[in-house]
Amino acid sequence: MSDTTISFTIQGDNEGYVTFTCPYCNSDFKLQAGEYQNEEEPFPDLFCPYCGLSKEKTGFYSEDVLEKARELATNYAIEELNKAFGKMARSVNRKKGIIKMTYKPLKKVNVRELKENDTQEVEFQCGNCNHHTKILYCAGASKIFCPYCGVDI
Ligand SMILES: [Zn+2]
Ligand SMILES: [Zn+2]
User: Residue 141 C-alpha to ligand 1 middle, in angstroms?
Assistant: First the structure.
């Protein structure tokens, strides 16, 4: 079977921010969808604004996004199965034999709508690369790192 890419867009909050989760410290932060998906400035890694550790950007997808990807992949597989079995049933039934094949298509799973809540994060702009991020800024945090270039903001 050949590889199939499943892509979908994520709706941001009303300022266009989308939630990401740090795989190390499990903290959520937000990035502007337009900056994150800017094809003219692709970047391989993201930095966690809280702990400063970096990983390839796919490692920062939030649980909701991963769940949605799984649901879409499941539906894609179901659709392919339905197509294949439907074809098989038709070709079996066309022959005047005693074998009759009925195939009941599988039902697709519900795909969640990803919605961002407007929470009380603080917006920061990196002085180095000018990208934006929104984080939950607690008084205890002494340093904030830019998710794109990793410098202190
Ligand atoms: Zn972290
Ligand atoms: Zn930066």
Answer: 12
Instruction: Give the tokens for residue 101.
Output: 């094949």
Q: What pLDDT score was predicted for residue 1?
A: 53
Q: How far is the CA of 147 from the centre of ligand 2 (A)?
A: 7
Q: How many structural domains are present in the chain?
A: 1
Position 138 pLDDT exceeds 80: no
Expressed in percent and rounded to 5, the helix, strand and coil fractions of the chain are: 25, 20, 55
Domain interval for residue 82: 1-153
Amino acid at 148: Y
Q: Is residue 26 within 8 Å of 50, Cβ to Cβ?
A: no
pLDDT tens for each residue of 79-94: 999 999 888 888 877 7
- Ligand 1 centroid from CA 53, angstroms: 6
Query: What is the pLDDT, as a whole number, of residue 14?
Result: 84
- 28 Cα–ligand 1 center, Å: 8
Q: What residues are paired with 14 via a beta bridge?
A: none
